[in-house]
Amino acid sequence: MSYGLWLSAAGLQVNQHRQAVIANNLANLGTAGFKRDLAVFRERDVESRTAPGATALRHRLLDRMTGGTWLNPTRTDFSQGALEKGGPLDVAIEGNGFFTVQVGDQTRYTRDGRFTLNASGDLVTVAGGHAVLDANGQAIHIGRADPNSIAIESGGRMSIGERRVGTLGVTDFADRSRLIKVGQNLFDGQHAEPTEPTGQVQQGYVEASGVEPTTELVQMIEAARAYQLNAMLISLQDGMTARTVNDVGRVA
Fold this sequence. Notes:
Layout: H1 3-27, E1 37-38, E2 41-43, H2 47-50, E3 69-71, E4 75-76, E5 83-85, E6 91-94, E7 98-103, E8 106-110, E9 115-117, E10 123-125, E11 131-132, E12 150-152, E13 157-160, E14 163-167, E15 170-173, E16 180-183, E17 186-188, E18 194-195, E19 200-203, E20 205-207, H3 213-248
């Protein structure tokens, strides 16, 4: 295969990946607390620089050229989303931090603060019905109560009148890039070091999705055009190769 075909094929792959990431962002335009993903690319080194013992692959001319474009790990943009009015048990974090929830036997983290009470009086997430944990990692049990009677302070302390019913577990991380998305708008933080959050809890608000539709649509158009251009280059190079084999190499 010609060198140009390799480069164009890589261009198809990275732009297909880019479109998939953007499509997922757009699909979560209405997901509370969702953090958009960013498709990140890098320049790929030529094979003679990366393959062990590749001395035989070295080429005086080709080694000066780029190895094309390739993928870096997808990154997440943790920028603050807009705060929108919600119900009495809806809470948003203004600033840095994540709510702690229980999913099966795993602890997960989310920015989606849409909470409700289940039939047993436990505080759970609206999305998935996961138990909301307190500052000590225990499920918060409120009992049968009127949601409008529950007050939530900026530090996460919850009370009904003079009775304290729990404190929301809010955690931040020293390096949020080490958080792993595990679906359902949840993060796995087992590889990240927890730190004290600096954000404040706002009762009666929900953090909107961090996706800006105009930006995503423009980027999707760019990715689609780049994909089409690489496909066109492959077609042109295939035609040139066919002509080289069938015409140039023909013996008169």
